[in-house]
Fold this protein.
Amino acid sequence: MRAVRLVRLGKPLEDAEIALPEIGPSEVLVRVAACGICHSDAHYRAGISPTDPLPMTLGHEVAGRVETVGAEVDHVSPGHRVYVQYLVTCGCCDFCLGGHAQFCAKGQMIGKHRDGGYAEFIKVPSRNVFVLPDEIPFEVGAVMMCSSATALHALQKARLNSGDSIAIFGFGGLGFSALRLSRAFGCQEIYVVDLNPAKLASIAALGGVPIDATTGSPVQQIREATGGKGVDVSIELVGSAITMEQAVRCLGILGRAALVGLTAESISLLPYTELINKEAEIIRVSDHLAAELPSLMEFARDGKLRFPKGTLRFVDLNAGQINSSLNAVVNSTDHIRTVIVPELHNRKALRADSI
C-alpha cells in the first residue's frame, strides 16, 4: 500500500510502498478516507517531539471505512464509516479505569509511536474505532479527532459555563473549535487573540471578538473590553511562554486558565497579584478522552460545530504536497486545517463545507 513516512528526523517525509497491515483478533483495518495534518506532525518531522521507531507513518486525525475486522470484533463491520481515537491504551490500568486513560503507562499515540493515517490503510485496536454518523463528512470527522476533541476537553476541564467570558489564544485548528464550542456552551463574550490578519478578519464572522496581538498587549486589550474585570476562562493553544503568561494575566477573580499548547520554555508569574489574590487557577490539559467523543459528535450533528467553506484545505496522499502543507502549518496559514484525502484526484467533490 502507499504511505508517506518520516524516515529521518529533520528531513522531508518520503513516499513509500509498504505491506498491508495484518490484523489480530481484536483489531480493525480501516481504509483511510481522510487524515488531518496537525501542528504536532510538524514537530515530529523536525524532531522537536520524540518519535520512535523510525521509519514512521505519521497522522493521528483519521476517518475512513472499515475494511476488515478481527474475529473478536462485533461493534463494527466491513463497510462501516468510522473515526479513530488516536490514543491506544491498555484499558485495565488504574489510569484507564479511573477515567484518565491519556496517562496510561503503556499508552501509544497513533502516528507517533505506531503507524498512523498518512497511508491508504491503518490498523488499530477495535476499542479505538467508533461509528461516524452519516451526516458528518469523513474530512470533518478526521480533523475533529485532535483539534476539536482536545478543545472540548480543555473547555470542560476549565469548567466553562453558559454566560462565562473566555479568551482564546491562537486561532488555528484548536482555536477554531474552541470558538465554535464556546458558542455552543452559551458564551457571549469570546475574545480570540492572534497575529494573522486573515484569521483576525474571520473571527468576528464566527462570533468572536478579534484581539490583534500586533497592536498592543492582549491582556490590556481584553481588560479594556471587559471593563477591567478580565475573563472567567482563558485557553492557551499557541505553546509559548509569553501567551501562557498572558492567558493567566487576563483572568478575572476566580478565573481559570487552561494551558494546552506545548513548550519547553518556563513561565514567570507573580504568585500573589496574578494568582493568589484572585484565587485564579492554572489548569493543565493533556489530550482528550474517548468518553468525550460521542458528545463532540452531537455538537457536529446539531450544527453547533461547523467547518464553513474555506476553513479546510485538501491534498492528496503525496509526500511533496504533505511536506508543503507541514511547512505552511509552521508558518501559520490562513485556513484552519489541511486534510489528506487519498486518491483526491479521483473524487469530484468534497462535502466539508456542508457541516
Observations:
- The two ends are 31 Å apart (CA to CA).
